[in-house]
């Protein structure tokens, strides 16, 4: 991340990473996206308590289309998913947008770092972000469920990214992955 860069926190939850970046880089622009209304309220309160002005919080879900979908609010009430509908205590309608559309809507001309933690919807988010990823080549931090790992790697390698597993959680069947753009190589 660069001091005046743009960080997009997809699945911001209560703002742990968004607040960290915003405080460390006060000239940065942080977009914190959280569809769960309970977590979004906590995020909004954290911004006020910490007097943070460089975070724009959005109560939407990123996906592969500009539409709406169901959001499963899980038992813990701050965990939610547009992909997994087990153990829901409530299903709410949520607006979905692609990152590609949101970049244009917000007038962003750069993105340096993207964090994705979307409880199983990572492929949808990546598919709706490909133009942004190809254009700006940001660093990526992704929580990836095992069932999506091979497809996610195929997509990201196809656009010039190299990814490494930072942490693996066998008991929950997911990994935290870091990806950087290395360029496209001719296979000849």
TrEMBL record:
Coiled coil: none annotated. One of its GO terms (molecular function) is methyltransferase activity. InterPro entries: FkbM_mtfrase, SAM-dependent_MTase, SAM-dependent_MTases_sf. The keyword Kinase does not apply. Pfam families: Methyltransf_21. Keywords: Methyltransferase, Transferase. NCBIfam families: fkbM_fam (TIGR01444). This is Methyltransferase FkbM family. It comes from Vulcanisaeta moutnovskia (strain 768-28).
